[in-house]
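It is worth pausing here to work through a concrete case rather than discussing structure prediction in the abstract. The textbook approach is simple: state the sequence, then state the predicted structure, then interpret. We follow exactly that order.
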Amino acid sequence: MNGGVSIHVVDIASGRVAQGLELTLQRLDGECLLHGQIDERGLLPGLERLAECLGSGVYEVRLKVADFYRQAGTTLPDTPFLDELIYRFGIGDARQHYHLPFKLTAWGVSCFRGGA
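Step two, the predicted structure:
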């Protein structure tokens, strides 16, 4: 796979993909590129169509973590530890693929640039 971004989200508290988690990919200037939900494979569908318009620059992924866990029946405090998680990352070489594998719970997150 050349260029572009892929996002995979796993709810490690349940050991399953975070199907239904709502998220947005946007440029740092606020331009929304894609808004959607994680699918049954744990991926954000539609990102492959954006590969051509993702040039070098700074981007944000916004994950609605508290909403996801509340919809799953998890009791969270009125002020959750993770509400909307904002993950800012840079694309230095738009010819390379940037894979973002998020591992999360209602209390923590891990992400790195994967080798997809």
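Step three, interpretation. The helical segments are 65-71. The radius of gyration is 14 Å.
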